[in-house]
Amino acid sequence: MFDNIRNRLALAILPGSVKKDATSPFKVIATQPADIPVYSDMTVRKTTREGYKMSPSVYRAIRVIVQAASAIPWIVEDSKGEPIEGHEFAKVWAKPNLEFSGQDNMEFVIAHLLLVGNSLIQPIIVNRRPREFWVVMPDLVQPIPSDVPGEWLKGWRVTPANGRQYDAPPEQFIHFMQVDPGNPYWGIGPLMAAARTVDTDNEAQDTQKISMQNRATPDGVFEADNMTSEQYEEAERAIRERYLSKEKRRLPWVVAGAKWHQMSLTPVEMDYIKSRIHNKRDIAGAFGISPIFLGDLEQSTYSNMMEARKALYEDVVIPLLDDIKATLNLKIAPMYGDIVISYDVTGIPALRADYGKKVDQAKILWSMGVPFDQINERLEMGFEEFPGWDRGYLPLTLLPTGASSAPEKLGAPTLSYKALNLQTEEQKTAHWKRIDRRRIGWWGVVSSKVKPLYEDEAKAIEKALKTVKALSPRDWEEAYSDEPPHWAVDLTPSLFAQDFALELADKKLKSVLEIGCGNGRDSIFFARAGLEVSAIDVAPSAIKLAKENAKEAEVSIDFKVANAEKLPFDDGQFEAVFTLSVLHATKLEKSLPEVNRVLEKDGLAFVYIYGDTQFAGGKREEVITVDKYLELLKALNFTVLDFYSEQEDSFDEFGEKHLIIVSLLQKAGEPK
Predict the structure, then answer these.
(1) Distance CA 126, CA 633 (A)
(2) 89 near 338, Cβ under 8 Å?
(3) Mean pLDDT of 355-367
(4) What is the DSSP string of 569-625?
(5) Measured distance CA(523)–CA(513) in Å, rounded
(6) Beta-carbon contacts of residue 337 (< 8 Å; ≥ 6 apart)
(7) What integer best gives the mean pLDDT of the chain?
(8) DSSP strand E in 78-209: where?
(9) Stretch 479-489: mean pLDDT
(10) Helix (H, G, I), strand (E, B) or coil at 46
(11) Tell me, what's the pLDDT at 212?
(12) How far is residue 186's CA from residue 176's CA, in Å, rounded to a whole number?
């Protein structure tokens, strides 16, 4: 059997010049007949209507993957893997046409792959180079297998809106596909695998809706004896009028000469919530994502959330982009010569934790004497070459195995008690006293010279610490004077805000105040999560920018220009307070009591501060120690639900490293 298959495959890859009875590839690999378009009943319209629009779980699963994958930038590399800045393809792919952005195009490509397993792009080729890329609806195009030896596709059968079909050449479309093992011409999306579960979940909701409309009253039967057909029809009409009408369901039934037999629902039939949770997990499994993203928060710890975000990229997004990348390099890259089309994941926060592990591994390898160029290549750390990076180093304390740790003897003679003519114990004692007096004398000379240097340095440090003060409103406003500072550019919500929102949802808290909102990114996220949001910032320019961003996001937030040390809100007005990397720039003995004041009893507060900041130039600013911070929280009658502190061991891109203090607090009462 295998010999026959090998022979047929050998004939299949022969060029078109071979004899006419040679076997075409589709006859060996495909199950589709030649010259007949390949159709599928799973269309984008159908899957969108019955899955994406009707099922919240399907909508959320697709949106999570689409948003994550479409935000990753595409780059072009040379044959050595070095990025080519400003390459023509990267520019066209980022702005593919006058109507869609590059991210818009990618959203359609990925959504179509998830819905039906197929996505098509039509490149507009000018002078053998693509000048535009347009998304094509897969419903309107079907591949036509070829019967010509050496040719895979005969073309595409296109059905435009006017219904007039025509055939297009094979090169007119770029076809991205999720593999269907039974059909190499047309793919299959994860939604088809989850179709029965989606239908079951939708039916469960419909059934529950009908049950609620009927006051959860189960079905039943009226039993009557010796009824004429006219009496039966009249009884049926009366029951329909009283039983099925929403306005009259609570009116009593009066049916003479009949008995009612109730048909009860079993506990399994009534187990609606549990079955829907299982449906969510099945749908999440089909799309390869964690059920956490679909609202199944049974295992939603902080660690699980971090792992879920990481797995989203590693198990779903990156393999999906690898498929798209392979197709682009097969169809488009050859038009530009020796290049590789790729994507850049270095800016993804969920994957940065892996980079930290790489750094730890690099430290261990470096301490073992492995040259840095080998470490860089093995761990794919992305560093550029620098002088000496091909040389390994070992600590001076290391010796070859079996070597003695004792130092080699020097040729100079050593003095002994006998050489010094120290015979008695009194002579030996007097000798050591002389040596000790000399040591004390030398120590006095050294300390008199060195001590003033340390005293001057200590005074300088003490003076610097005393001059550290909270930033004034003018300082914050000046930060926005020329252009938004680095913290006000990115609108991606912080991971802390995302986790805090889950905490609030778990405790059913609704109102939240953000102190130091900056460009409003976290406040906007809270508002989109359905919370009632107020936000303050001491800089008017920050509030102006935040309002513009909130308007564009179409969310309602109460923004105010205010100082964290004197909040313009009533006592106990909020159920939660969120402040990220702000309060260390205030006087904590004033701002933290304000946080306590505006919180209602048992309200939650998330506080992230820097206990101190060390600068690359040597300057150090201390705000508060961990012990003093905890003492202050205790005095303010806060219960510490969660706490974390870490001293950064390396300087960031701004030449700073911090003592990070993060706390989740609950107001137990008024300050003591």
Answers:
(1) 67
(2) no
(3) 77
(4) S-TT-EEEEEEES-GGGS-HHHHHHHHHHHEEEEEEEEEEEEEEEEETTS-EEE---
(5) 8
(6) none
(7) 77
(8) 118-126, 129-136, 141-145, 153-158, 166-168, 174-177
(9) 57
(10) helix
(11) 61
(12) 9
CA dihedral angle for residue 542, residue 547, residue 549, residue 551, rounded to 10 degrees? 180
Q: Could you tell me which residues are beta bridge partners of residue 559?
A: 535
Q: Does 7 have pLDDT greater than 80?
A: no
Check residue 23 and report its DSSP letter. Answer: P
556 pLDDT higher than 90: yes
pLDDT digits (tens, 9 = 90+) for 421-437: 666 777 767 767 666 66
- Asked if 37 and 146 count as a contact pair (C-beta separation under 8 A), the reply is no
Q: How many CB atoms lie within 10 A of CB 4?
A: 8
Query: Does the structure show a pLDDT above 60 at 268?
Result: no
Cα 35 to Cα 29, 32, 138, 157: the distances in Å are 16, 9, 19, 10
Which range of 203-207, 276-280, 472-476 scores highest in mean pLDDT? It is 276-280
Token match 């190499």: residue?
A: 184
Reported as a single tens digit per residue, the pLDDT across 81-108 is 888 888 999 999 999 988 889 899 999 9
Number of C-beta neighbours around residue 68 at 10 A: 22
Q: Which amino acid belongs to residue 334?
A: P
Cα gap 186→37, rounded to integer Å: 10
The distance of Cα 667 from the centroid of its chain, to the nearest Å, equals 31
Q: What is the mean pLDDT of residues 209-226?
A: 61
339's CB contacts (< 8 A; 6+ apart) are: 76, 77, 78, 79, 84, 87, 89, 333
Q: For residue 531, with 0-12 CB atoms within 10 Å meaning exposed, 13-18 middle and 19 or more buried, which class applies?
A: buried
Residue 117, phi-psi category: left (phi > 0), alpha (psi -120 to 50), beta (remainder): left
Q: What is the pLDDT of residues 571-597, one digit of tens each?
A: 999 999 999 988 988 899 999 999 999
Residue 258 parent element (H or E): strand 258-262
* pTM value surpassing 0.85: no
Residue type, 346: T
CB of 389 within 8 A of CB of 372? yes
Structure tokens at 403: 């070597």
147/35 Cα distance (integer angstroms)? 7
Characterize the bridge pairing of strands 166-168 and 656-667.
unpaired
Q: Which two tokens stand for residue 288?
A: 């390869």
Q: How large is the C-alpha radius of gyration of the chain?
A: 37
Which residues lie below 8 Å from residue 662, measured CB to CB, with a gap of 6+? 496, 607, 608, 643, 644, 645
Task: Please indicate whether residue 398 or residue 595 has the higher confidence score (pLDDT).
Answer: 595
Strands 532-537 and 558-561: parallel
**First-to-last CA distance in the chain?**
87
Place of tokens 């893997």: 81
Q: pLDDT tens-digit profile of 244-253?
A: 555 555 455 5
Residue 472 is classified by DSSP as P
Nearest residue to 613 (alpha-carbon basis) of 589, 648, 643: 648
What does the angle CA 66 – CA 71 – CA 73 come to, to the nearest 5 degrees?
130
Which has the higher per-residue pLDDT, 510 or 34?
Answer: 510
Q: Compute how many other C-beta atoms are within 10 angstroms of the C-beta atom of residue 662.
A: 15
111 token code pair: 């959504």
- Can you give the pLDDT at residue 185? 84
657 beta partners: 614
Tokens of 66: 């689409």
